[in-house]
């Protein structure tokens, strides 16, 4: 596959689809001068799926639900759109569950829920019961979303903590995944004098910046 340099950062996002024959359904048409229909099986519990479309450029598509209704564009992200080489890769997300909000960014999709008046441990456990985790602020894009939501005037917990060992920070990843090591060289947003590496205050909140 030939890609333009501007598309190279997006190629890593294709690995889950291309790795170890991850294609669950494939259909080939010799003639695409008229519209073609492809039915693809999707498990009812699936959170997302990727669709890879290969053609001769000018790729157009419509994603329909099983009931025939057109799927909302707000839930369809574009990983790759290389019309020159005829590749389009879509990331189709399941809608957020009831009482959860969609952040509105199809290429950085999040479902989020806001709660009040909890300490860090209680807030984490509430997230766990929903199969979720505290806010992940590990990238600039995620931080920009948090800033737009709270206008940098609200203090709230994020998943960063050094609960297990003082001075060694990890991002909480919910009840089913191990914590992710904090890598400050990729992105950090510590406030002045932070982190304090306190043996008592071991959880991080965000108020424009991160504070332990």
Automatic annotation (TrEMBL):
It comes from the Eukaryota. Residues 110-212 form the C-type lectin domain. CDD domains: CLECT (cd00037). Gene3D superfamilies: Mannose-Binding Protein A, subunit A (3.10.100.10). PROSITE patterns: C_TYPE_LECTIN_2. Transmembrane segments: none annotated. This is C-type lectin domain-containing protein. It holds the Pfam family Lectin_C. SUPFAM superfamilies: C-type lectin-like (SSF56436).
């Amino acid at each position: 596959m030939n890609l333009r340099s501007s598309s190279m950062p997006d190629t890593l996002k294709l690995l889950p689809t291309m790795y170890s024959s991850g294609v669950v359904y494939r259909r080939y048409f010799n003639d695409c001068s008229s519209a073609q229909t492809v039915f693809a099986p999707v498990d009812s519990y699936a959170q997302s799926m990727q669709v890879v479309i290969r053609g001769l450029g000018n790729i157009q598509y419509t994603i329909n639900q099983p009931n025939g209704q057109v799927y909302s564009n707000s839930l369809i992200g574009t990983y790759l759109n290389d019309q020159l080489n005829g590749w389009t890769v879509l990331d189709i997300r399941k809608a957020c569950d009831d009482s959860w909000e969609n952040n509105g960014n199809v290429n950085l999709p999040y479902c989020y829920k806001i709660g009040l008046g909890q300490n860090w441990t209680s807030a984490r456990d509430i997230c766990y019961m929903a199969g979720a985790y505290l806010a992940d602020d590990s990238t600039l894009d995620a931080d920009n979303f948090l800033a737009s939501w709270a206008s940098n005037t609200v203090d709230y917990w994020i998943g960063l903590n050094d609960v297990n060992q003082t001075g060694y920070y990890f991002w909480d990843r919910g009840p089913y995944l191990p914590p992710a090591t904090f890598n400050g060289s990729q992105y950090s947003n510590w406030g002045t004098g932070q982190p304090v590496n306190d043996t008592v205050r071991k959880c991080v909140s965000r108020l424009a910046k991160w504070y332990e």
